[in-house]
Design goal:
Elements: H1 4-13, H2 17-24, H3 32-45, H4 47-52, H5 57-72
Helix pairs in contact: 1-2, 2-3, 3-5
């Protein structure tokens, strides 16, 4: 069984950025980064809800992907 970090890296390497974010959003720690991953995935899954809240879901996903890349050294 692969570790979640390896699944994140594999998904990113194949070009599946949302898949990598999906794996990262399942981390159990309460770090600032993991909370960003969870918000980004929620914004991806429910964009209409976040627009009703006055937020930009595309921007939230983009920001979460940037944090993910920085956290794991992905390019």
């Amino acid at each position: 069984m692969k570790r979640k970090v390896d699944q994140v890296r594999d998904a990113w390497a194949t070009g599946d950025r949302i898949g990598a974010l999906r794996f990262a959003a399942r981390f159990f720690d309460r770090s600032k980064e993991t909370k960003s991953f969870k918000r980004g995935m929620a914004a991806h899954n429910n964009p209409g809800f976040y627009r009703q809240l006055g937020k930009e879901p595309d921007r939230m996903v983009h920001d979460a992907l940037e944090v993910l890349a920085r956290r794991f050294g992905l390019q």
